[in-house]
Amino acid sequence: MNGTLPDPETGMELTPAQVADLLPAIQRGEIALIDCREDDEWRFNRIEGARLVPLSRFGEAVPPETPAIVYCHHGMRSLRATSYWRQRGAEAWSMSGGIDRWSAEIDPSVPVY
Questions:
Q1: 70 lies in a domain?
Q2: What is the CATH number of the domain that holds 66?
Q3: What pLDDT is recorded for position 13?
Q4: Its pTM surpasses 0.90
Q5: How far apart, in whole angstroms, are the C-alpha atoms of residue 47 and residue 38?
């Protein structure tokens, strides 16, 4: 992948490894990393550089102007959030397996629950 987002037409999901490749662009603000879990989950663990937009308040949220990667605990809520934003014209992808898979494959220092 080499630090670039795939064509949205190729699918709605990115693997944690693909997201890890994009961390420099996320840190530069070129891509938004959105955690769609709830506040209590956010307080327990998160991916550095992410912004919290709970799925329960997604209807109130304005999609970012930059492309966005959305994650949750296991990847189901983030798929719904990604679909919702795509229907509103945003470039968005869901991280498959959520933060649980991120902890297992990318950063074991992120606690699991």
A1: yes
A2: 3.40.250.10
A3: 97
A4: yes
A5: 14
3 lies in some domain: no
Q: Is residue 49 part of a domain?
A: yes
All residues at 6 or more sequence positions from 30 whose CB lies less than 8 Å from its CB, including other chains: 66, 67
Q: In which domain, by residue range, is 16 found?
A: 11-105
Q: Does the structure show a pLDDT above 80 at 71?
A: yes
Residue 18 amino acid letter: Q
Specify the pLDDT at position 29: 95
d(C-alpha 25, C-alpha 47), whole Å? 14
| Residue 54 located in a structural domain | yes
Q: Are 33 and 47 in contact (CB under 8 A)?
A: yes
Residue 107, token pair as written in the block? 């950063």
Answer whether 99's CB lies under 8 Å from 21's CB: no
Which residue intervals of the chain are DSSP H helices? 16-21, 23-27, 39-44, 76-87, 98-105
